[in-house]
Amino acid sequence: MKTQHVVVVGGGLIGLSTAYALLRDGHRVTIIDRDRLGSGAAKGNAGELTPQQVGPLASPHTAKDIIRGVFTRTSYLSIEPLQLPRLALFGLGFLRASGATRSARGAAALAQFSGEILPSLQRMAADGIDVSGGGDGYLMTSSVEAELQAAHASYRRRAEKGWGEAPGAILRGTQLADQEPALASGVAAGFMLPGEFSLDPITFVESLIAHLKTNGAEIREGLTAERLGDGASVVCRAFDGSKTTIRGDKLVLAAGAWTTPILRKSRVRSAPVVSGKGYSFTVPVEQMPNTLVHSMDRHCVAIPMHGRLRIVGMMEFGSHPEHLNRQKLEVLTRAASGVISGADWQNRTEEWVGARPMTADGMPLLGAIPNRHEVLVAAGHNMHGLSLGPVTGEVLADLVAGREPVVAGKPLDLRPFAINR
Ligand SMILES: Cc1cc2nc3c(=O)[nH]c(=O)nc-3n(C[C@H](O)[C@H](O)[C@H](O)COP(=O)(O)OP(=O)(O)OC[C@H]3O[C@@H](n4cnc5c(N)ncnc54)[C@H](O)[C@@H]3O)c2cc1C
């Protein structure tokens, strides 16, 4: 295979995973980041890799939530009213994607990756990347009976199609308390999803960066990509305001929630990627949960991570991706206090906000820009950039090499992920 110089714009979960797969293929790689590598949504997230749960956010159920999100400040999902004009097109696209047929089509498109999420991570682990800190199996909980039954049935159906492992039996009362003694008393029921995995994204990202450096990646931090140049080049601005053009044989644009402005400035028409902010913090607990606990009705996740408990949740569409809204941390704390007992909620540390790169239909943008085969986009991985990072990197390496991407033994249908859909 011909060795190429590939410029990767964005050193987040997708850019780093892509750089990893490209180096493994023997290419020369330059990674550009406007800040430090891993400074976007890469490290403060929930650390979940979810063959079962990888799917679009838009569904008949969340359509109601997105409308409610405009009017309430205490919901897990919120939209800043002032941002409504800017988000109108995205909102309409989201509502369109929420219909039963379209959301099922979206689920099938993303399920193409399900069987390769953990194997691609294991290939990284075999190469020395640190995937520790979490473990196998999630406890899914809900006190809303209809929601619990619907989720259980949906995971059973997915497993029958080969999209992840089947859920365990529904647990209640002492069975539930035995499974997870750290649950708050109001949690009525739950079931295990044994095939999901979690890790500590801080140690994962740091070891991935160390691996890339050891294996010869060129790192250019503090360079903001402004627009594409000609061929496989990108025009960047440094901290001191000076401009520089970085050029390769191929270019991969992986700037997460910040991707759309770069494409717009480059006059490339694309499905918009908008920021859906999420929050996390660490909290001291009397008793660490045995596994990750995902509360479906309270919309939050409690994750044991290298001996500390991280709480994650919220979806806030609106203002600047970097802005931490303290009110949202309070809403998340209230939600989590109904899930986990014995936590010292006043002593939160590592408070963090991150921007999920959201698309209206939940599909990432993957592939070459039309008529510019030397420029590829890998962005818009929604809530699944860690799950999909390692396999996305392998798909991008295939595309750079001119190979047809094969995922879990089948040719990948890239049409749902077209840049200008
Ligand atoms: C609260 C929360 C919890 C989450 N939990 C999970 C989870 O459990 N599992 C999961 O799979 N996913 C999860 N996600 C989603 C996941 O974090 C994202 O999908 C993922 O980070 C997207 O990767 P990315 O590389 O596209 O973007 P990022 O990781 O955000 O990286 C983008 C990078 O691009 C850089 N950049 C931006 N603009 C420019 C520019 N102009 N020039 C150069 N560089 C630029 C940024 O500095 C950044 O380093 C969660 C997200 C949040 C917020």
TrEMBL record:
Keywords: Oxidoreductase. InterPro entries: FAD-dep_OxRdtase (IPR006076), FAD/NAD-bd_sf (IPR036188). Pfam families: DAO (PF01266). GO terms for molecular function: oxidoreductase activity. GO terms for cellular component: cytoplasm. Residues 5-399 form the FAD dependent oxidoreductase domain. It comes from the Bacteria. The keyword Oxidoreductase applies. This is FAD-binding oxidoreductase. It comes from Leucobacter viscericola.
